[in-house]
Amino acid sequence: MGFAMQTNLNKVQHFDPQIVASEKAIRTCVHCGFCLSTCPTYVLLGDELDSPRGRIYQMKEMLEKGGAPSPETVKHVDRCLSCLACVTTCPSGVNYMRLVDHARAYIEENHKRPFMDRLMRSFLAFSLPRRNLFRFLLKLAPLGKPFVGLLPSRLKAMVSMAPPSMPARHASETPQVFPAQGKRKGRIALLIGCAQPVLAPHINETAIRYFNRLGMDVVVSEGVGCCGALPHHLGKVDQSHEMAKANIKAWIKEIEGEGLDAIMVTTSGCGTSLKDYGFMFSDDPEWSTPASKVAAISRDVSEVLTEMDSPLPVDRKRELVVAYQSACSLQHGQKVTREPVQLLQAAGYTVLEPKEKHLCCGSAGTYNILQPEIANQLRDRKVSFLESLKPDVIATGNLGCMAQVSQGTDIPVVHTLELLDWAAGGPVPLALRGTPLEAESTS
């Protein structure tokens, strides 16, 4: 198998808990190379430095030397999608997620990026988590579309992803309790997120409607906003922690009040972040316990349904072939793989999964903006395998995947929960409205 990677930290560094945690992850690596075949950037570029093993070497040297990292190291760490396919593959259990998160924070603190790069990253970290600002900026995006061919690649990617029109606000943006229908069976909090309610409010609308019909009170808590994942993956730790603390404070109030059976997430990228709150604040005596309590009851929507063991009965079987695109944050980050497929099958759909289902579609939070060339190659590769299944519709549990994949195909892309709701008598999924599929499946 190989030998564990050795490290050479100085005495002072051993007093830094983050460096100690990263050293443990580094020393777990045995150079076996199993991660190479499942790393999207290595598969595309064939460069050892763009593999998990190669990046671990670079991060080890960066932390050992201290000071400013080399531009080469920054380039290869920036190219990592944090898809965590390597974590699923690794036989040694290397905690690559926390290692690369630490590396990004270290780079943010010790490396001075070019001005435009700093500006872009700060803009994304500030604007995307703030719903009202993000909505306002998207309304301005059509002004740039006539000039999209003249824009730099990153700005071009941002403008191209903006929807042609903005959906109306949904009531879920206002903190309140959406009461259960019929006999009340439980109480769950819903993370409405930051980008999702702006770009696709129908997803949270579907979740509220579905779970209300299941007999669950759905709580949208005052003070809950971005989960913190977007700034976190940009290395902006302080900003990420402040957002996480606001969420923890709000949900602890609910837990200690009327109680919560779960904190439900409909965007899997956010779910991975919530489940890591306990580690995020493990060295903070004030926040460690409440953070762990929140992490312990955080669930993807498919997990909530599976644990309830009582999805709504199928109202009418839809004769549709569904290609299921498993989001990296769900299959690798949270190890949730069977639940969405089984739920769709139980709802009467024929479910197929594509070749290379473990490889990322290229969305990865802000990756498709910051690394558009690689992201587009991954999208086209993913779409080719999805289209080869000849499905009627593509389903996934993450907004980023929905947006990324839909840019590369004419096949409708919907959230998994939309199909479950439709099978149980709910409205037609938004992407299917006005298409032949709507008429065929209801005739």
Polypeptide structure, described:
By secondary structure, this protein is α/β, with parallel strands linked by helices. The protein folds into four domains: 13-110, Fumarate Reductase Iron-sulfur Protein, Chain B, domain 2 (Orthogonal Bundle), CATH 1.10.1060; 115-161, no CATH class; 171-306, 3-Layer(aba) Sandwich (Rossmann fold), CATH 3.40.50; 313-442, Rossmann fold (3-Layer(aba) Sandwich), CATH 3.40.50. It has 24 helices and nine strands. It has helices at residues 17-28, 40-45, 52-65, 71-78, 85-89, 96-110, 115-127, 131-140, 153-161, 196-199, 201-213, 229-233, 237-256, 268-275, 277-280, 288-296, 301-308, 328-333, 338-346, 367-370, 372-388, 399-406, 416-423, 436-442, and strands spanning 176-178, 186-191, 216-220, 262-265, 298-300, 321-324, 350-352, 393-396, 413-415. The strands form two sheets. Strands 1-3-2-4-5 form a five-stranded mixed beta sheet. α22 (399-406) links the parallel β8 (393-396) and β9 (413-415). The longest helix has 20 residues, at 237-256. The termini are far apart.
First CA to last CA: what distance?
58 Å
Number of DSSP-assigned strands: 9
The gyration radius over C-alpha positions equals 22 Å
Q: What coarse outline follows from CA principal-axis ratios?
A: globular
The assigned CATH architecture of the largest domain is 3-Layer(aba) Sandwich
Count of individual helical segments = 24
Strand order of the largest sheet: 1-3-2-4-5
Q: Structural class from helices and strands?
A: alpha/beta
Q: What do the pLDDT scores average to? A: 90
Are there runs of 5+ residues with pLDDT below 50, and where? none
